[in-house]
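Thread: sanity check for a docking pose with flavin-adenine dinucleotide

Original post by kr_44:
Hi all, I'm comparing my docking run against an independent structure prediction. Below are the sequence and the ligand SMILES. Could someone generate the full complex and paste the C-alpha cells? I mainly care about where the ligand ends up relative to the chain.
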Amino acid sequence: MARRIGIAGAGFAGAVLARELAQSGEYSIQVFDERAHVAGNCHTVRDARSGILLHQYGPHIFNTSREDVWQYVNRFATFGAYTNRVKAITARGVFSMPMNLLTINQFFGKVMNPAEAREFLARVGDTSIREPRNFEEQALRFLGRELYENFFYGYTKKQWGVEPTELPASILQRLPVRFNYDDNYYQQRYQGIPVEGYTSIVEKLLDHPAIEVHVGERVSPKDQSQFDHLFWSGPLDAYFEHELGRLQYRSLVFERFDAQGDYQGNPVLNYCEESVPWTRISEHKHFAPWEEHESTVCFREYSKLAEPGDIPYYPLRLQNDKSMLQRYMESAGKTKGVTFIGRLGTYRYLDMHVVIGESLDLAKVCLRTPMRDWPKFSATPL
Ligand SMILES: Cc1cc2nc3c(=O)[nH]c(=O)nc-3n(C[C@H](O)[C@H](O)[C@H](O)COP(=O)(O)OP(=O)(O)OC[C@H]3O[C@@H](n4cnc5c(N)ncnc54)[C@H](O)[C@@H]3O)c2cc1C
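Reply from moderator J.T.:
Ran it for you. Here is the predicted complex with flavin-adenine dinucleotide included:
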C-alpha cells in the first residue's frame, strides 16, 4: 500500500516535493494550505477589473543560475523575457539601483570611469572605521556619509524597523556598488516571469493522481499521526506552538490604487527617504510587458513587525532570533516523522529558485533513503 505523506503548505517548497514524491508511485500525498489558494506568497491572480496579472503578495521575478531548476520550471510554464531594473527616489532625485556607475556619476555630477569611481569612493569612505561592527559602519566605511544617508539610512530603517546600527554589517555586501553601467538587479544566468503567472505553475505541479489538494485547511502538529511522514513548510516555531518564543519576522502591508495609462514608468520604484512611509511602489502591468492594458494597478508597500495573525514575510534573524532558532533546531532534532522545508520551515529568506532547488534535492534524498532516516530540514537553518 502507498505510504501516506502530509504536506503543510502549497507554496513552491511543498508543491515541488509533492510532485517529485508522487511520481515515484510509492506515496499517496495530501497537500494542505490554510489560505484559499495554492502557490503561497508567489500567488498571482488576474484582476477582475483591469485584467492585469497581480502578484498578490508582492512582485516576484524568477531568476536562477541552476540549469536543472530552469529546465524544471520551464516544463510547467512559458516564461516571458524580463529583466528587473529598479529605480530609487531620494531627496536628491531619482537614481538607478543597484548602485552602479550611472548612480555615482549622476549623484555627484561627475563623469568618472570605473577606475576613477573606485578611487573616488575609496576617498569618500570613512577609513577611520577599520572593522565595521554594524550595517551603518559598513556603509560609512565603503560608501561615505552622503551615499549612505541618501540611499540606505531611511530605506533600511523603514524596511527593518530598527536603526541601521542595530543590524549586522553582513547585511550589506562589502562594496554594494557596480563599477559599470549594469543596472540588471539580478546577476543570475536566467531571468523571466511566467506568462500565465506562478499559481498556474503550482496548479500544474499538483495536478497528479497521487496528490490531493486541500485549500483553506490548516494542518496542526496534532494531525501528524494521520501520516507516515509530514513535511512542514509553515513557520518552524508554529509547529512547536511557540513554546520557546516567537521567531521575529517583518510583515508587509500593500495599499492598492488604480490609475489610467502608465503611472510611474517602471515596475518598481524604491523610496529611500525616511519621511515617505512606504518602502516602494510597484506597478504590476509592467511585470508583463508582453500584455497591453489601458488602466493600471499599483501597490504602495509598507513594512512592519509581524504580530500574531500577520503574514510572516522576511525573517528578521537578529541575534535573539538566532539563539531561539538554535533551540528550535534542537527540538526538531528530537522529533520523529517530520521534515521542515521552505522559507518558513527553515527561517531563512529564500528566492523561489532556491526553494525549488532544495525541494528537488530533498526529494532525491527521500527517494533513496528509508523513511525513518529522512532529514529533519531541507537545508540547515543556520
Ligand atoms: C515581498 C516578497 C518579494 C519576493 N520576491 C521574490 C522575487 O522577486 N524572486 C524570487 O525568486 N523570490 C521572491 N520572494 C521569495 C518567495 O516568495 C519565496 O521564495 C517563496 O514564497 C518560498 O516558497 P515556500 O513554499 O517556502 O513558502 P510560501 O510561499 O510562504 O508557502 C508556504 C505556505 O504554507 C502555508 N502554511 C503555513 N502554515 C500552514 C499550516 N499549518 N497548514 C497549512 N498551510 C500552512 C502558507 O499559507 C503558505 O501558503 C519574495 C518574497 C517576498 C516576501
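The first helix runs from residue 12 to 22. Hope that helps with the comparison, let us know if your pose agrees.
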